[in-house]
Amino acid sequence: MPLLDGAKTESRTRSRKTTITLLAAGAFVLLALLVALNAFNTSSIHFLTPQTTGEILVFTATSVIAFLTLLALLVMLLRNILKLYMDQRSRALGSRLRTRMVVGAALIALAPAAFMVLFSFVLMNRSVDRWFSQPTSELRENSVRVVYELAHYAASNARLEAEAIAASGALDQSTSSAEGELRSRRITLEGGFVAVYGANRQGMFGYQLPANNAPRSVLPWLDDGANNAVPMRGDVYSDVLSVAQRSDEPILIAGDREFAIGIAATSANRLIVVGLPMPQGLSQTANRIRIGASQYWKLFRSRNRIRSTYLFMLLLITALVFFSSMWLALFLSKQITRPVEALADAMDEIADGKLEMRVSVDSSGEMADLVSAFNHMAHDLESSRHLAESSRLQLSDANRKLDERRRELETILETIPSGVVTLDVDGVILLCNRAFSALTYQLPDENPSGQRITALFPAECHEDIERLIRRSRRMGAAATELEAQRSGSILHLAITCARLELGPGRNGSILVVEDTTELLRAQRQLAWKEVAQRVAHEIRNPLTPIALSAERILRHLDRPTEETPAVMRKCSEVILGCVTTLRTLFDQFAALAQFPAPQPRPSNVNQITENALMLFSGRLEGVSVHVALEPSLPLVMADPEAIKRALANLIDNAAEAMQTSLLKVLTVTTSLAPDGTQVEVAVSDTGQGLTDEIRERLFLPFYSTKQRGTGLGLSIAAKIAQEHHGSIRAEANSPKGARFLLCLPAIETTAVSPLREAPSLHQPETKPTVTASK
Predict the structure, then answer these.
(1) Which SS3 state, helix, strand or coil, does residue 426 take?
(2) The domain 416-515: what is its CATH number?
(3) Cis (ω within 30 of 0) for the bond into 735?
(4) Which CATH class is domain 598-771?
(5) pTM over 0.90
(6) Per-residue pLDDT averaged across 526-535, rounded?
């Protein structure tokens, strides 16, 4: 996959950025170090106050390195500015953005930096003037003067106390009188001590002298501010005397106490040294005051140099800030423009169709996100192109297969003998095949598309077709048979309608129309042939006993005997029975041929079922009758008497089928079909059941499985169901036997109230068992 920038360019850029970062960090550290050293007292740092030649060389080398570092950074800055100027002249991509960022950064940095320099310099001048003002100088001089006067005052008090003790003359007398004099001055001594020396300057006795083993030192009062206490190694008398004989009035430090020393001589040439205690820490305080005053005068003499130094530092900081802002602006502009340049070049490549181009640029933050988003977009574009190419090939192949499939379907539709037509939701023809045009007597060059389906059929078929379409929309599929009169002949059509999904929110229908005229004619011929055979068979059966009975009567008439009357009576009964059978056969055949026209009206199926069951009240010997009638069934449009006859035939056949069964259970139920459009009446038995061959021929006229059956009962029931636009079918019962289901169309949105209790045979809803016995 091509990359816009190579690895060498990235390595070079990374190395340059690392070098610049290190140089900038070094310059910043040096500047911070200089600021910190000038902000604090650096006189105690030996390295910054070089004394020897080696220290001076090291300090000079460090300064030169710092200066060269700043100079290198300045050269790099100037180089980048010149390069930016050349890019601006050549109108390079991103140069104007870099120029604006550099100029903006310079302006933004220059204004606050200049303000900071001016404000800091003015503030520094005012601070220096305030530090070295006349009141401050006088305050420091007065503080030093107070310290010296306090020291002289303490020494004078000690000297006066010594002179007072010497003037009393008690010390020239006995030791006891001397000690009494010293004790009397305990208050004025304020916790101090007294040492008495003889003419030979040897210690005679003392009062409250410091311990001999306590560390002692002498602290002189010096104007140079040095605070050097000199340790003393002699005994307490010699140390006290040496301090008292000094002319600079030093302080004696014994342990943690400080004493001002005074000396006086008696008339007997004895020396009296008095030490008065000074306030705790007075010497340290006085010493600090002297040191502070000394440093103050040093700073006062170098105040102009301080101004120059701080001004130079401010200018240096300003220059560094300005340089840093310029360099930062250049650096940030490169961080922005370099990815932008790479993105622009990559976009040109992608515009030329090279979707495999990617951008490889070292960036961070939002620019890194932008580069990543661009690469992701390029990857998506490349993937989309591959996907589009693959989809195009797949679509082309799918279209080719669809065209082949469409041609196959068109060929199939044009070759099948059944008429096929598709309709929209309004019943308008969308497409039809050649067979449908032929069935509706359309010319080959005429296209019935755009016409309503009912316009191609006679007016008497319109309602049936519309009802069929509505029913298919509810149930998914529906079928019916129509008779249409064309050119003086009757055309029998079997129409099947199914719901068709034409698209989102678009529904329609598909109709399959078959011409069953010849099929029905053949079926009728076959049925009448079978009827003739069955009629001949059924007539031949009673004729044989009639002929035999007649021959027997003739024989007894020719030769009468005592048994002749009985034989003639018996033969006559046989003949009459056979004649009755023939009459019944003829009556049923006549009923099949000329069945009265039904008179349909809204009827309650449960009531009709109860009436049919009433016909068999007390006649079903040994049969358990189970009845379950569904309450709240919708009404049906039916002739109650005709439906009752059909149900009576079904119940009678069920009872006959169970004659040889050990378990005789007759079940009659009513229910609403799952689609809610039909009411179903089921008659079930526990007989021998039905085979597939019997089920196919069960509803043909004169077909019977009973020995003495006529075969007309079920065909009459099927004809009644057909006349009521319903159906009847036979199926296997569980666990054994047969189940006949009579289905009648329900009147839409009409329901009956629950039935009252049946007067006999069963109770609705509770499914009782009624057993009829002999």
Answers:
(1) coil
(2) 3.30.450.20
(3) yes
(4) alpha beta
(5) no
(6) 74
